[in-house]
UniProtKB/TrEMBL annotation, chains A, B:
Keyword Transmembrane: no
Alphabetical list of SUPFAM superfamilies matching this protein: Tryptophan synthase beta subunit-like PLP-dependent enzymes
InterPro entries assigned to the protein according to its UniProt record, in alphabetical order: Ser/Thr_deHydtase_PyrdxlP-BS (IPR000634), TrpB-like_PALP (IPR001926), TrpB-like_PALP_sf (IPR036052)
Annotated ranges, domain Tryptophan synthase beta chain-like PALP: 16-308
Matching Pfam families: PALP
Species the sequence originates in: Pseudohalocynthiibacter aestuariivivens
Claim: Magnesium is one of the keywords in the record: yes
Spans traversing the lipid bilayer: none
UniProtKB keywords: Magnesium, Pyridoxal phosphate
Required cofactor(s): Mn(2+); pyridoxal 5'-phosphate; Mg(2+); Ca(2+)
Protein name per the record: Threonine/serine dehydratase
Signal peptide location: none
Length: 331, 331
């Protein structure tokens, strides 16, 4: 099971391969949030999201004889790109099973990074069966997106950096809000903070109608989202927290925060204006929580993990058209 | 006159106040450029451009009794914001004289950062006379945008970071392309590289019709741009290189590179797609030079300084509408 030793071992394997992202801030955002806001921009990570960390962690730990046959992953996009690049950098083949309706940019990038992309219908086909057939035929190793200790350890390296960077800013007590799908990033960061910055507490942020982690933390059981809902936060619309990630979150995380799609669009525009980084909707939800749900947060500082920036240009233009011109309430 | 000792002294004064920006890259950009491309994203600096470095350097070196009366600056935008924030962080007043037609975002931000903004007509009024009157009345110290040794020293700290980061990437010989207006950033970086990474060579990048530095380097004299031209690169449309910056550039810089507005828009979209950073047109021109003028560059690696990201949402949407969807030639 993932622990601080595994996370630090992952950090050693990632050194020189993954990017150490900075901690950003803006007086304009502090004013909106009513406290100091720090943003960990994992959109600046290789492939535009934190997923490269977990993918590298898992691939670099494989037995070379196994790794050389290749890897397979299921992903709506960010995990796909992370695995594709990590495989290419290791010189091994990758197959990525992606839903037809994933953002074009994510599908195109995954292919351009050298992966073989197999598309399936999220509402009609069984992706696990597709994946199992391919794995058996070719001897591919499955890299799970979150419910895998080595992946959680890789994502946890983000938490090691946050612990150091927060100390440098003089912050020893604060919430660390994390964009949460299956909980790999949230649980990895929670484990790193427990060991290296016990005054910092991870909290999941989720979209409306996809608040499975938030409800699971409240009930104490793994809850599932109702089917049939939509959200622009494509990166984090997983049905429920993982079997491995949930117990970690239950032990270590503060309450979840739920933000709307519209709040995410507004946050994307504020990140354009104030931080000069590209956020995708799901990558904006932690910062959206800090900016627009300030009553649910305590303390004079908050840290938000901005998990990714792989957004299609048309969605991004929507955000700018609606919210890209600052008004007096924003500044 | 600015030298490496002044730059290193500025780096000490900036430590803990200015941000150390990372060095970014993308395999997609490497492919377009035909060599490894590294980007120093000064858009992630405080106030969204490198100008904060020079402003902080100058303000922090003032005699406190003088500084407390306040400072004044002339600027189309980025220097304005840098001076405004540096003044606010020092607890002193600032007055910024800006052209009416500067981007709204830059004017609004300068005001929101606590400066008193005085607008003037670039084509009718004498900004120097306006500034001189205000300075005399209130005892304000003028912070020049580039022809000032302490400002050049502050911008030069970017070059110290590049020297370290290039060594870390194993690059000991490469061109460092720098977005060039009056030459403060270019000459500061050139001085830092001369002392700390002599195999790296600074080269100015400029917009069509505003290629004064490029022509000055060719002729050996300070050349001036014809009046009446327009460019979307508002940050770097100065009329000529400075009296102090030009001799430094002449001694140390390689030939200039001239890129078109359209190449800048295309580069802004590529930075959206591949680096997840916001570039303004003038901030994109060094990377545009590396991507679209590769025949003018030698070596297997190139470093580009992306100087700022303060762009109005409508210009940014233009870039995305035209070039925001990748096509086969981009990847």
């Amino acid at each position: 099971m993932t622990d601080i030793t595994m996370i630090e071992a992952a950090a050693k394997r990632l050194k020189g391969h993954a990017r150490r992202t900075p901690l950003l801030s803006s007086p304009f955002l502090d004013e909106i949030a009513g406290r100091r806001v720090f943003v960990k921009p994992e959109c600046l990570q290789h492939t535009g999201s934190f997923k490269f960390r977990g993918a590298w962690s898992a691939l670099s730990a494989l037995d070379p004889a196994v790794r050389t046959k290749g890897v397979i992953a299921f992903s709506s996009g960010n995990h796909a790109q992370g695995v594709a690049l990590a495989a290419r950098m290791h010189g091994v083949p990758s197959v990525i099973v992606m839903p037809y309706d994933a953002p074009h940019l994510k599908i195109d990038n995954t292919r351009a990074l050298g992966a073989e992309v197999v598309l399936y219908d999220r509402f009609g086909e069984d992706r696990d069966a597709i994946g199992e057939t391919l794995s058996k035929e070719r001897g591919l190793t499955l890299i799970k997106p979150y419910d895998e200790p080595l992946v959680i350890a890789g994502q946890g390296t983000t938490g090691l950096e946050i612990a150091e960077q927060a100390a440098h800013e003089g912050i020893d007590k604060a919430d660390v809000i994390v964009c949460c799908g299956g909980g790999g990033l949230t649980s990895g960061i929670a484990l790193a903070l427990e060991a290296r910055a016990p005054g910092l507490r991870a909290r999941p942020a989720e979209p409306e109608n996809f608040d499975d982690a938030t409800r699971s933390l409240l009930s104490g059981n793994i809850e599932t989202n109702a089917s049939g809902n939509q959200s622009i936060c494509d990166a984090i619309v997983t049905p429920s927290p993982g079997q491995i990630t949930f117990p970690i979150m239950q032990r270590l995380c503060g309450p979840g925060i739920v933000a709307t799609d519209e709040e995410c669009l507004k946050t994307m525009a504020l990140a354009f204006l104030r931080l000069k980084i590209i956020l995708e909707p799901g990558g904006a939800i932690a910062l959206a929580s800090a900016l627009f749900h300030q009553d649910e947060i305590k303390g004079d500082a908050v840290i938000c993990v901005a998990s990714g920036g792989n957004v299609d240009a048309d969605v991004y233009q929507d955000a700018l058209r609606k919210y890209g011109t600052p008004n007096p309430t924003d500044s």
